[in-house]
Every structure is written in structure tokens, then in C-alpha cells.
């Protein structure tokens, strides 16, 4: 027997024209929301209502809607991606809410993630951090060794795979009281640091990525652990410890 029902909710949504404008929370009443619908489908329903009322729809980011890309980053009722764990916003369903609930929806809050419009933020700072060190050298002399022919201990391969699961959504930054990107950066550093292909640039990589992180204006880590709790992919803070070790080692041996 289906447990789907329709609920009526009140939405308090952050509206902001652009990064230079002063934003504010606006209130919307939305009725007959199916509890089987996803949170983004609920926002689609709201925007359809706003368009019919000749009002400007709410801008929000989305793409795959399958929990893969991380673009659907929203701060919902004081939690990154909403009141559930191990999911992105597109995987959050309205059955998590009750009839008559008031739901607060805001963009990520970070100096390094300026608001573009409404619930959309600019996360290109993450791209610049990856560009600062997220690559490996490959021998293309004609005697290139197939990657599968390079032995990698299973424990290292598993840890690298777990770190590579980071989708760069920014929930770690949004939930951190310091606005720290340490979990994200450490996942990207660990992804390469654990594999033999990543050893060539290991020293430059961690120094460059940490430097770029600081230049973007992210805060530092104080081991609160909120980032790991709210990460939709369960990235472990063990990666932060690994990055710190890589950074100290690189700092001691680098002549820069």
C-alpha cells in the first residue's frame, strides 16, 4: 500500500539578485506537495507556481539529480543538503518533512563561495585548487607502462578510491564553523598521494593546493568533525591528517 501523501508547507527562501545585492528571506506557501517528490522537484513545483503568478522563479543549481555531481548544494533547516545523512539535496525527499512545516532554504555560506543569484553560489575556487595540483606526469616516450601493470597495494587502492569519491559539492565548507575546505583538499591530495602515479608531483602538489586554498579565503581546520558528518560521500577526516603529514614533509624538503 502506498504511503505517499500530499502536504502543505511554508518555505523561507533566500533571494539575492547578485553578489553585490543585499539578500533576504522571502516566504512562500506551497500546497499539495507529494511526499514522494524530491526536494528539487518541490522547488520545480514552487517555480511553476511563481511563473504562473508572473513572479521571478528561484534560481538554484542542479544537474544529474542522481547524487553524483553535487551541484544541488543547499543549506536546508540549518544543515548542508538537509535533514538526512549520506545524501545530496537531490536525494532528499519530501517524506522527511511534515504537513505544516516551515522549511528554511539558503545557499552555502562562505566568503570563498560568493552568491551568484538566490541559491546559486560560485564554487570555482574548488576548480582553482584542483588546477593548482590535481594532475600527474605520464611518460609518453613510446615506452609508456600501462597503468594496470603498476602494482598498487589493495589497502592503498581502497583508500585512494574512497578519497576520489569526493564530488566537490562544498558541504564540508558550508557546515564548518570556520568555512574550511580542508576535507575537500585533503581528499584530492590523498587521491594521488596514495598511488604510485602521483608520487612525481607529490611535493609540489600539496604545497600548491594548500597555498591556493589559503588564497581563496577558506578557513582552517579545528577538528570539529562536522565536515565528515555532513559529507554526502562520507569522506573521512583521516584524509586531513594525511594531508597534514604530506604538507609537513613537503615543507621540510622543498627549497621554495
Your description of this structure?
The chain is an alpha+beta fold and 256 residues long. The chain contains eight helices and seven strands, in the order ββαβββββααααααα. The chain has a five-stranded mixed sheet with strand order 2-1-5-3-4. A two-stranded antiparallel ribbon has the order 6-7. Helix 2 packs parallel to helix 5, helix 5 crosses helix 8 and helix 6 crosses helix 8. The radius of gyration is 21 Å and the shape is elongated. The chain starts with 5 loop residues before the first strand and ends with a helix.
List descriptors.
Ubiquitin-like (UB roll); 14% strand; 2 domains; 256 residues; Fumarate Reductase Iron-sulfur Protein, Chain B, domain 2; alpha+beta
Concise structural overview:
The chain is an alpha+beta fold and 256 residues long. Helices cover 34% and strands 14% of the residues.
Give the helices and strands, then pairings:
Layout: E1 6-15, E2 24-34, H1 39-52, E3 75-76, E4 79-80, E5 102-106, E6 115-117, E7 120-121, H2 124-133, H3 154-164, H4 171-175, H5 182-193, H6 202-216, H7 226-230, H8 238-253
Parallel strand pairs: 1-5
Antiparallel strand pairs: 1-2, 3-4, 3-5, 6-7
Helix pairs in contact: 2-5, 2-6, 3-5, 5-6, 5-8, 6-8
Amino acid at each position: 500500500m502506498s504511503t505517499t501523501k500530499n502536504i502543505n508547507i511554508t518555505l523561507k527562501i533566500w533571494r539575492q539578485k547578485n553578489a553585490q545585492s543585499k539578500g533576504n528571506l522571502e516566504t512562500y506557501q506551497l500546497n499539495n506537495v507529494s511526499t514522494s517528490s524530491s526536494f528539487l522537484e518541490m522547488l520545480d513545483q514552487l517555480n511553476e507556481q511563481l511563473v504562473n503568478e508572473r513572479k521571478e522563479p528561484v534560481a538554484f543549481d542542479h544537474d544529474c539529480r542522481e547524487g553524483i555531481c553535487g551541484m544541488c548544494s543547499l543549506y536546508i533547516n540549518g544543515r548542508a543538503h538537509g535533514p538526512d545523512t549520506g545524501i545530496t539535496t537531490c536525494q532528499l525527499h519530501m517524506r522527511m518533512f511534515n504537513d505544516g512545516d516551515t522549511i528554511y532554504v539558503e545557499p552555502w555560506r562562505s566568503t570563498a563561495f560568493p552568491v551568484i543569484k538566490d541559491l546559486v553560489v560560485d564554487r570555482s575556487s574548488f576548480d582553482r585548487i584542483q588546477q593548482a595540483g590535481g594532475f600527474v606526469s605520464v611518460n609518453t616516450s613510446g615506452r609508456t607502462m600501462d597503468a594496470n601493470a603498476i602494482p598498487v597495494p589493495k589497502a592503498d587502492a581502497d583508500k585512494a578510491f574512497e578519497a576520489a569519491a569526493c564530488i566537490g559539492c562544498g558541504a564540508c565548507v558550508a557546515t564548518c564553523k570556520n568555512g574550511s575546505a580542508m576535507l575537500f583538499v585533503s581528499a584530492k591530495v590523498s587521491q594521488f598521494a596514495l598511488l604510485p602515479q602521483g608520487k612525481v608531483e607529490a611535493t609540489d602538489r600539496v604545497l600548491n593546493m594548500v597555498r591556493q586554498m589559503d588564497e581563496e579565503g577558506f578557513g582552517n581546520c579545528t577538528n570539529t568533525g562536522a565536515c565528515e558528518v555532513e559529507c554526502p560521500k562520507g569522506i573521512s577526516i583521516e584524509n586531513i591528517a594525511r594531508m597534514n603529514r604530506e604538507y609537513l614533509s613537503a615543507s621540510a624538503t622543498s627549497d621554495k
